[in-house]
Design brief:
The chain has 158 residues and is α+β, with helices and mostly antiparallel strands. It is 36% helix and 19% strand. A hairpin with a 6-residue loop joins strand 2 and strand 3.
Length: 158
């Protein structure tokens, strides 16, 4: 499998990627033991995977419910215009909204699909009515409230 900067991933790289996706806080020694390599080799490979753009910044995941953001909404948006300059302005607006966890430009009937986390329905209504629908390029939207989370992962299969 060839990646950015022609970095070829081998079995050890895959083991490293799986281990780091499960626990990015592992020490080099613990990681080396887990994947069956030396700490120095792990360190070099991690640096190479970072340089190739395969590994991004390590982060800690926050439980949304425990910080008062327990309502998850899937939001579809259709734009009035697909002019490049208007889309760029709209996407800049989206990037600046902390409640938007993910946003994907879509093919098909809707232009964007977003995952939003908010404190409650009133919080979502404020965001939707005051901010999103007030945007002059938004034609319409459809909201879908998540009843429960059946599966959630940040780990990419490697």
């Amino acid at each position: 499998m060839i990646m950015k900067e022609n970095h070829q991933i081998d079995d050890l790289d895959r083991r490293l990627l799986r281990a780091l996706q499960a626990d990015a806080g592992l020490s080099h020694e613990a990681l080396a033991e887990k994947v069956g390599a030396s700490p120095a080799s792990c360190w070099r490979r991690i640096r190479a995977l970072e340089k190739a753009g395969i590994l991004r910044a390590p982060v800690r995941l926050v439980d949304p419910e425990r910080v008062g953001r327990g309502v998850s909404v899937m939001l579809q948006v259709r734009l009035k215009s697909h002019a490049m300059d208007l889309r760029q302005v709209f996407e800049s607006f989206l990037r600046g909204r902390p409640e938007i966890m993910e946003c994907h430009s879509m093919s098909g009937e809707w232009d964007y699909l977003m995952r939003i986390v908010v404190a409650d329905v009133a919080d979502y209504e404020r965001f939707l009515m005051r901010d999103l629908l007030a945007n002059p390029n938004v034609a319409t939207s459809a909201s879908h409230f998540a009843l429960s989370q059946v599966k959630y992962t940040t780990a990419v299969p490697v």
